[in-house]
Amino acid sequence: MTPSASPPVLEIAGLTVRYGARLATWAVDLRLGPGEVLGLVGESGAGKSTVGRAVVRLLPEPGRIHDGAIRLQGRDLLALSETEMRRLRGADLALIPQDPLSALNPTFRIGLQATDALRIHRGLSRTAARAEMTRLLGRLGIADAADVLERYPHELSGGMRQRVLIGMAFACEPTLVIADEPTTALDVTTQAQILRLLEGLQAERRVATLFVTHDLGVVAHLAHRIAVMYAGCLVESAATRDLFRAPAHPYTQGLLAQALRADLRAHAGAALDGLMPVLTASPAACPFRERCPRRLAICDQAMPALGEIAPGHAVACHLYEAA
Amino acid sequence: MNGATVSPPLLETRDLRTHFRRGGWLEPVRTLRAVDGVSIGLARQETLGLVGESGSGKTTLGRSILRLVEPTAGRVLLSGEDITELSQAALRPIRRRMQIVFQNPYASLNPRRSIGAIVAQPLAVHAVPGDHDRMVGDLLDRVGLPRDAARRYPHEFSGGQRQRVAIARALALRPDLVVADEITSGLDVTVKLRVLALLRDLQAEFRVAYLFISHDLAVVRQVADRVAVMYLGQVVEEAPTEALFERPLHPYTQALRASVPFPDPTSVWRPPVLPGDPPSPIAIPPGCRFHPRCPIAESRCRAESPQLRALGPGHRVACHLVT
């Protein structure tokens, strides 16, 4: 696939989000091509979920988009009114959240909430919407879909609820899906089921997907490209194979070194020292410098810019800047 | 210990069962069999990893051993002494020898008490003679926190640091056994690896045994000498750590192991997808509890419940079909 050849589905430019005094993201640039799955990875607090939430404009309080642009198929999402935005959500723009229980209203049956989008955005009748949702849930491996629609959220298992939310996300044939740690709360065998379903749906429908996760194992098998965030900044992005084969940023190298090997052993003792800083102002120096094993004098003096070191492989690190 | 020459294991459970009653008043009374016949042993200074998914009963087993919930049947022996029926008063001196660290360090530390008061509490409760301030300082130092942390409060610390405080509190009485219940879930990999390294260091120094409960296979592999895998209230496989990961024999253990996606895009990840969800401990299937989801189940598995049998040094498996 050549994502750069066709116009991007999603284009994020210079996205800066503030939570009060804290900078959750700083000047993040991202592009997603049609049918592309982009894995957005980082530790908690790195800003990865904030990017996803900013795209659907559902930032938790007191989050504000301070600067930047977000374009969905060329359309500036930040210029839309709340009404126009609501028309997009659940239709062109779908979110699969981390915690399926809090995403569903506990007082309504699944059938009513799951068919909302189909009735509102696609104008289907109640009966037609139920039939369509039953078909979709069947595709997601729910054998007794009609029965599931009659139940309340608390009556379903976590894996079942997440399948319902995936069904809701894909119901109106979205152009972009934001998956925010969709399997983090699930057991490992259920996670495997859900990931394979997502992989299948993705292969079938080729929907551009922003997959936010802390788990490198998950994106290794699902994502075409991976972008790594650290302290609110994008530090590296590359095709999945390139990132795993030749990580360039010392932070990415550290992250991969402490990830699991195939025998389920992490590299013991390879834990990165120190803690991730919290930004309160535009970084005047590399945010990783305190923990970096390859720190240079310039790292204390300037924030490195994101630059290409190979086709499709960009890194924000002074080690790679032309002398 | 009836004149035997071999010293008894530090901890032993014999056919331990913990059932809960659910329903009643307008609802039929049902029995939830959380722990349903578990016999395990733990030697001094040994770590037994207890692995399972939600609903497997691993947490209830840990709490039943500590008599934080009351077992319904079976025995718990500490150094050969039967503690199953001891009154709470008679248990008090024994509680000095067994402590617990909980999953959520945000809930397990009282926000209104200083770190010093939290760590000193078990010393005060058991009226341990000596200078408690100095002992607290030494403990904080040992878990990698500054001594002056004693004057500060839980909210000033990160999740990983709070878990260190909880570990210091658990070790204050120099117990023989610590039950660690999912103590690294919710922590980032970096922090997780450091907490695990700390546990290993402290084990030799404090001569403590761990019952290490976790859903995370990779974490268990890091710390455990032996591993027991639980499914629906029973142990289905138990083996030395290497054997369990290199040569898992039970189809459930194999599925669990294969479900973890490795961070290597060149590896093939095709987990055997177990049909359905784990059944509820309220409605346990007849025969082998795993048969409705088992890829190799035969008619015998639907009728007869398999017993644990030895299939290698220290390797026990409850499956009719593996040899």
Q: Span from first to last CA of chain A?
A: 33 Å
Q: Helices and strands of chain B, in N-to-C order?
A: EEEEHEEHEHHHEHEHEEHHHEE
CATH class of chain B: Alpha Beta
Number of domains of chain A: 1
Biggest sheet record of chain A: 8 strands, mixed
Tell me the CATH superfamily of chain B: P-loop containing nucleotide triphosphate hydrolases
**Helices and strands of chain B: which structural class?**
alpha/beta
Q: Kindly identify the CATH topology of chain B.
A: Rossmann fold
Count of helical stretches of chain B: 10
Strand order of the largest sheet of chain A: 6-7-8-3-9-10-12-11
Mean pLDDT over all positions of chain B: 93
Describe the structure concisely for a colleague.
The complex is a heterodimer of chains A (323) and B (323). With 323 residues, chain A is α/β, with parallel strands linked by helices.
List the helices and strands and how they pair.
The complex is a heterodimer of chains A (323) and B (323).
Chain A: E1 10-19, E2 22-32, E3 37-41, H1 48-55, E4 63-72, E5 75-76, H2 82-88, E6 93-96, H3 100-103, H4 110-122, H5 126-139, H6 145-149, H7 158-170, E7 176-180, H8 188-205, E8 208-213, H9 216-222, E9 225-230, E10 233-239, H10 240-245, H11 250-257, E11 307-310, E12 313-315
Parallel strand pairs in A: 3-8, 3-9, 6-7, 7-8
Antiparallel strand pairs in A: 1-2, 1-4, 4-5, 9-10, 10-12, 11-12
Helix pairs in contact in A: 4-5, 4-7, 7-8
Chain B: E1 11-22, E2 30-38, E3 41-42, E4 47-51, H1 58-65, E5 73-78, E6 81-82, H2 88-95, E7 98-101, H3 115-125, H4 132-142, H5 159-171, E8 177-181, H6 189-206, E9 209-214, H7 217-223, E10 226-231, E11 234-240, H8 241-246, H9 251-259, H10 299-303, E12 309-310, E13 316-317
Parallel strand pairs in B: 4-9, 4-10, 7-8, 8-9
Antiparallel strand pairs in B: 1-2, 1-3, 1-5, 5-6, 10-11, 11-13, 12-13
